[in-house]
What we know:
The chain is an alpha+beta fold. The protein has ten helices and eleven strands.
Amino acid sequence: MPITASFAIIEQLAQAHRRVLSDWRAAVLLRRASRLLPQAERRWTNVPASARAVHPLLEQMARRGELRTIPDLSWMYEVTVPYVRTGVVEEDEILMEVHPYAALSHLSALVFHDLTDALPKSITAMIPSSGTAGLLPLDTEATDWEGLALAPARVPAAILGRSVHWLRTQGARYFGADVYRPHGYPVRATTMERTLLDGLLDPERCGGLQNVLRAWALARDLLDLDALVALVERFGVAVLRQRVGFVAEELGLAHPAIETWRARARRGGSSRLLGTAPYAPTYSERWNLSINAPIGALRGEVA
């Protein structure tokens, strides 16, 4: 018996453990099914040439109770049929559909990697300042977009009532993210190593320096030091080398590059562990770095 367009979409969503459906993904999935299924095995004939082309179908599916609209996000739906993944719909799955080129970052990434027990009221996501940074929407391939406009990037102020901070990032700094599937569906987030570096560069977006240092201590035995070093070099920021070198040595981490950084550390000057705090007389001679904030968190001390 030929299958319906709605069944073709829902079946693919179930296979991918997805509970969130946008109009652009519905178009991609229906086009994919159109390529795979002979006409005799499907009940639809028209292949959608745009996301708008599937709007009537999505409205029908919503009327039948297969989909439920997500508040304040046009053409974004929660899939309600019982054989798709159960459980609540998470904000990160919606975020990946709303902005297909975003990556959870800063405090949200620390939470994602279980490196903090903070409960942020908002979501933080890194997005390209322009374009897509060479990325495709998750779970799609280049062939899915032949003859179809790439999915648009949207930046709503909130998702399911939680505010979102969209951090526009220049292309040269849009790196160090990966795709993870802790719940089956894909989530793009900055890697553990990139997240910890962001913490030293911008601790206020990561819950404060003490939260960042605790995260470094928690991650000590999980870090890929080669990846960490490569990211530091890609940033090319002298004070970041000093901060990472100091923190790494406090944690007992060793890598050939760290000693090279120490030799290159700028003599004198006003390099500080915490860039937003005044210079302090407590000083690391090895790293030419003012230790202008408590560092007990690196040793497991509770403030």
